[in-house]
Amino acid sequence: MIRKTRLIRLLVLLIVLIGLGSYLSLFLGVTTIRPLEAIREWTSGDLSKETLVLTTLRLPRLLLGLVLGANLAVAGALMQAVTRNPLASPQVFGVNAGASLFVVLALLLFPALGTANLVYFAFFGAMIGGLLVFSFASVRGMTSLKLALVGMAIHLLLTSLTKGLILFNDRITNVLYWLSGSISDSGWLEVRLIVPWSIIGLILAFSLAKSLAIFQLGQDVAVGLGQNITRIRMLAAVAVVLLAGVTVAVAGAIGFIGLMVPHIVRRLVGEDYRYVLPVSALCGGLLLTSADVLARFIAYPYESPVGIVTALLGAPFFLYLAKRQTKGVA
User: Fold this and answer.
1) Are 37 and 53 in contact (CB under 8 A)?
2) Where are the alpha helices (DSSP H) in 138-254?
3) Partners of 302 in the beta sheet?
4) Most C-beta atoms within 10 A of its C-beta, which of 24, 51, 168, 293?
5) C-alpha of 246 from chain center
6) How many other C-beta atoms can be found within 10 angstroms of the C-beta atom of residue 43?
7) How far, CA to CA in Å, does 143 sit from each of 77, 83, 93, 134, 146?
8) Is there a contact between 39 and 51 (Cβ–Cβ < 8 Å)?
């Protein structure tokens, strides 16, 4: 169990890093914004083009990065807890790919559908993707490595179907950029959309923290201590669908945050999910915000999808975990 003083130091460090990342996200980019000048213009009401960029683009983009990063990290932590599989994440288990496929289908079949309604298709797709993975992986016994392999196969299949739909329908080719994972074109509309769903999903996840901490002692121990395993898994699945679904609907399939962050956090705070979940939320927001800042300079002055940066970081991490799991099986 982590000591209170160490936890406080970690939280202070994360808050400082989030503050630094927020500063860079707000003031760095193609349009250079001077903080003191922006504050002066804001208080005087005489807004320049730079200040409008700050208030209408950069600020909602920052908030989206923090919230969506928290969503993905907490969703990954929940999946790793209930499956007791270190390779679990919304991307690896087909949740992101399922949500993406159904969002693209909705755009194709109902072109006038608003973003607020796309969320429901993302929720349904996320649920279908996860169910497909667990259905195939449970045939003849389920292992961690088998679950990961089936998950990646379903992910690739659903992603291929999604890209096929886009390539053969010219009127939705503009979503290819979104499909790579991006928050660059989002604004206050998207912030207002994600906040209610994210709050519900995060509250539900945090309410399961104590049960998940007991669950890590083993299923038999958890049952002996009065835990309803089926109920815990069902509620965790609902939270994952909410958190991952709303993220995909707004920002596309941003991968690997849900895989990497819970592993890093458990190294820092241990296995107690009363600490793992909130610290994962902070680290996820920090990671996505930092990745978004880096994405602005990969092809400067043009912006790249943030999903490219998270993939560059996460792919080696996934291979490392898979190698460890293979050694464990051998």
Assistant:
1) no
2) 144-167, 176-179, 188-207, 209-215, 219-224, 229-251
3) 299
4) 293
5) 10
6) 8
7) 18, 10, 13, 11, 5
8) no
Q: How confident is the model at residue 196 (pLDDT cuts 50, 70, 90)?
A: very high
Buried b (16+ CB within 10 A) or exposed e, 22-38: bebbbbebeeebeeeeb
- 229-249 tens-digit pLDDT: 888 888 998 999 999 999 998
DSSP 271: S
What tokens does 322 get? 């898979």
Q: Given a cut of 80, is residue 326 above it in pLDDT?
A: no
pLDDT digits (tens, 9 = 90+) for 267-319: 899 888 999 999 999 999 999 999 999 988 887 777 888 888 888 888 787 77
Backbone phi, psi, residue 302, to 5°: -85, 150
Confidence of residue 330 (pLDDT cuts 50, 70, 90): very low
Q: Rounded CA gap, 240 and 243, in Å?
A: 5
What is the distance between the alpha carbons of residues 242 and 130, in angstroms, rounded to a whole number? 13
- Cα distance between residue 138 and residue 116, in whole Å: 34
Break the chain into its structural domains and give their ranges: 74-280+304-329
Instruction: Look at residues 279, 216, 192, 281 and name the one whose alpha carbon lies nearest to residue 243.
Output: 281
> CA 278, CA 267: separation in Å to the nearest integer?
14
User: What string of DSSP letters covers 40-64?
Assistant: HHHHHT---HHHHHIIIIIHHHHHH
Q: Please return the burial class of 294, using the count of CB atoms within 10 Å of its CB with bins 0-12, 13-18 and 19+.
A: middle
Partners of 299 in the β-ladder = 302
Helices (H), 84-143: 95-109, 115-137
Nearest CA-CA partner of 130 in 171, 189, 78: 78
Query: What is the Cα 37 distance to its own chain's centre?
Result: 34
pTM of this structure: 0.89
Computed over every residue of the chain, the mean pLDDT equals 85
Helix (H, G, I), strand (E, B) or coil at 302: strand
CATH of domain 74-280+304-329: 1.10.3470.10
